[in-house]
Amino acid sequence: MSYTMEVNVAKNQVVVRAYGLTEGDVPAYIADFENALKKLKPGFTGVTDVTGSPTVLSPNVAAMLAPTGDLAIAAGVGGWVYVADSPVWKMQMKRLFGKFAVHYPTYEEADTYLNGLANQSVN
Fold this sequence. Notes:
- The longest helix is centred in the last third of the chain and has 16 residues, at 107-122.
- A five-stranded mixed beta sheet has the order 1-2-3-4-5, with helices on both faces.
- It is an alpha/beta fold.
- Helices cover 46% and strands 20% of the residues.
């Protein structure tokens, strides 16, 4: 599979790990993303980890995925982090999801950042 998507209801978070999405993967990805959003409450957070992907998204795949940013905003995203260790990935994610694109080189750093956001919303 070219990606995994896990929903942690207790943490109100979705974690995506991408391993090289193709045009054929996008319809299932969007359906999975919509189902994930239904399980989360407004203020949810998300992580997209692309460190396991051998290449950046093709222009067609990027265009097909672009609406997922609007879906997340409509569902009340509280914060989203992209784990990317490549400057090219960082550029692409910022171009696609610039509204809320925050980048960290490791999942641990991304998780720490999102935990800080969750703590701010509780206080």
